[in-house]
Amino acid sequence: MNYEALHEAAHRAGMEAGNGAIPQPMVVVEAGIFDEPIPGGNRWTVPEGVCGFAWINIRDARKGFARWAKKVGVGRTDRYFGGVTIWVSAFGQSMTRKEAYALAYAYVLQDAGINAYSNSRMD
Length: 123
Hints:
Elements: H1 3-20, E1 26-29, E2 43-46, E3 52-58, H2 64-72, E4 76-77, E5 84-87, H3 95-111, E6 116-122
Antiparallel strand pairs: 1-2, 3-5, 3-6, 4-5
């Protein structure tokens, strides 16, 4: 299997999904010390939605695509989840777009028979 071509196909699918995702804008409201909104306080809108991270995890780091990804620097050993993790660095801080990328990337790997899944967390 050509892992570089697989990575490029997964990356293209991820970029298309991330660019096509529509984040729900986040509104930040000025609050007091007990987190209650200040009447007449400032409000900011973050068009790209909530901030966060997303990644793709591949369980068995000893063989196949995961080993290749680690070897060429696409992925790295994940000491928390195990296996190899590929971080989504595109799309700034938009968790919505990063999640869409990770999900599409993982689907391409799954279609190729690789045990991969996406994950995310809010910042």
